[in-house]
Amino acid sequence: MKYLGKDVLNIFLLLLYFISMNFLFIFYSSYFFIDRAFLNVDYLLYVIVSCFMRPFFSCLIFVVFLAVDVVMSAKGIFYFDVNSVAMSMSQINLIQIFQSNLFILTSILAILLTSVSYFISRLFYRNCKNIKFMVIAIVVVLGLDFINGTNGVLPGSIQATINLAVLPENIGTSQIGKLAFNLARKRKTVVPVQIDSASETRLIPNQGAPSNDHKMLIVVESWGVSDNPLLNSIPLNRLLVPSVLQRYDVNRGRVPFSGATTSGEMREFCGIRASFTNAIELGSANCLPGRFASAGYEAYAFHGFAKAFLKRQEWFPLVGFEHLNFGDDTSEEKCGIVFRGECDTNILSKIASLMRERKNQKTFVYYLTLNTHLPNSPKLANKSPASCDGVPTQEICTLLKLHEEFFAALGRILADPTVPPMQVLLVGDHAPPFADLKSRKEFSTHEVPFLELVPK
């Protein structure tokens, strides 16, 4: 009876540990966006590992399991897929990660949880009587998810035959297994399939265009579209003003989006839904910069962040850019918090100077903005005079002010008579990747806006 009571206590502690680890994520999801099943069985796998490994080493395994759980749960905030996460993590030295309050808080919590895991590992080291129970628990959790039709691994035809759809959410998973499954998928050759983009019918390379033809594509970081008209209008307050409208006609609309920033770039460059890693397969002939170059335009690309991040210095030439300008190529003033780079307004001034220099030469400019990348800088946003009366959250207010300040700087250039007229197409890359649900729900999760300015 004594040993039976100890076994029951151990099982109780196991269940308490397993439920508590998952409850933290469930509680977090009430306020913040995460993409995760209710139950992650990796924490039961960890206990099994603890039976055979010394506590110190099993604790290292726990840290890996927890890190994978956090990353896999949070990757959807920025619309990342697994491959994008893996590449971003390999270049984390380029990001000012310790400037993120969320990262610091998460790290503190991880240290506390690791301390608890050390206690668990000491308790179960060489005490493997309950392995059978843990295996059964794993099978039950994954089995329920399988029956519910939410495991996301089986083909849809098989899943449809057993889907009870009792719960609309993923019941259980292994985040380690999910990561391994996604990384094991072989990258398939992409057959260019046209999808809706803002540039496909608006920025058209023309061999016979006059020598003073100038075109610019601006992908605006985190520029989303809302059902709330106020949130759509504030960023454009100082762009659509009489001094600009007397020189330009305006067209507005929306386009679908999927994925993170590089997916938005590939959408606008090549008209496909694909990763930038497929650029070599597509070639410049199938993408907008290359088509402009073939039509006699000089193709320039500007971005305020590091050239090595997401390998833009490698794949931009593959889609046709001849001249690359990145934030780490200059000692100009830096802006931003985590993604700190050359200030967007400085780059706009450089583009204006380029257009003046090339007044009588055909030019295509691409510009990917940076300073509106979340997390945002309230200090930088305070430069905007925009009012946030009626804006649901302070986080949205800060982002709108940053967009408004950028669009105002662009408006000043477009109204400048020394800058030659140019067709300008602005389009969002993806919806604002707010972590908090209250801010995130204000923006469409499948469409972004575009705005075209055409010289009169």
Automatic annotation (TrEMBL):
- Which taxonomic lineage does the organism of this UniProt entry have? Bacteria, Pseudomonadati, Pseudomonadota, Alphaproteobacteria, Rhodospirillales
Indicate the transmembrane segments per the record: 12-31, 43-66, 102-121, 133-154
Q: Does the keyword Disulfide bond apply?
A: no
Q: What sequence ranges are listed for the domain Sulfatase N-terminal?
A: 284-442
| InterPro entries referenced in this protein's UniProt entry, alphabetically | Alkaline_phosphatase_core_sf, Sulfatase_N
Name of this protein: Sulfatase N-terminal domain-containing protein
Q: What top-level branch of life does the organism fall under?
A: Bacteria
Which species is this record about? Answer: Thalassospira lohafexi
Record keywords:
Membrane, Transmembrane, Transmembrane helix
Query: What Pfam families does the database record attribute to this sequence?
Result: Sulfatase (PF00884)
